[in-house]
Predict the structure.
Amino acid sequence: MRVLVVPQEFKGSLTAEEAADAIAAGIAEAQPGWELDRLPMSDGGPGFIDAMRRAVRGDTHGDVVHDALGRRVLGRYVTLRGRATAVVEAAQANGLAHVAAEERDAPRADTFGVGELILLAMEHRPASLLVGVGGSATTDGGAGMARALGARLLDAAGGELEPGGGALARLDRIEWTRPGALAGVDVVVATDVTNPLTGPNGAAFVFGPQKGATQEQCATLDAALAHFAAVVRRDLGVDVEHLPGGGAAGGLAAGLVAFLGARVESGFDVVSAATNLPARLAAADLVVTGEGSFDGQSRQGKVTGRVLELAAAMGKPCGVLAGRAPGGGARTLDEVEADPGRRMSEAARALRELARRWAAGQG
């Protein structure tokens, strides 16, 4: 029996690689004779650079950048050998993982550090740039990213706006010239969502609450992003307000399109192509995937949903292991560990045992 183990991260507890290791270890305990193909996956969010580096020979680089609240953090990025391609994972700078729950400040958080990562990647003179977005603490439409690249976002008095999406309500004009280092560079945004920048399904209302925004702040941020989009349309000649996927990472995707002419693509498809996932699925007899929360969003472009779709199309049985599954459809960690705190702090142990039980039932 050949099993493809293809999970994404278990947010807040396990990276995709740690999840794949735990699942593989549990399966090996129950079925020592099975052949295991481990493929930790990402759809553009946390784990994106690691998935790409494993799939294609690449080099990891790191330097100090700023997180969503302006604090210094170590950010990593990857250059792919022989492809003249740099890969940036925005969450290395603006990710929720850098911001404790009590520190989250949606109106003030910004993407300046993402722009710093892009500038660092450009030092390697790539012909193309992949930017994975997701898992962000920001809702600034990519304004901070643009400032780091040299854009001036000015109020009516000619002063520079302060960081964060909330300040965009006072944006009067944008002064922007694309940096020479980015001239001719093909930029692709890899994302797992199709939400637009604004509106009831937009960046602020859908994703703002997980970044600490109240409903009132979500409404304020949505209005600020709509104003930002109007100024971008006037000053840059690019309409990003209703672009599918433009709301990813608090509108960072829209900002990358507006300022760098990026294309928005499925993060899953980008990683799938790099890792040769279809062929590895075809070679498997059984597939297992998983994530922290298997819910309604899982079937809207996320790894677990897309793996389930591909496996079904190929007629491959596919199991899902998850931290939680409000709507069912997955084996969950509460089968192994009743205490919610230990399910997070001892997630690797619990997932390994859950995988062992799942595999024992497959023989």
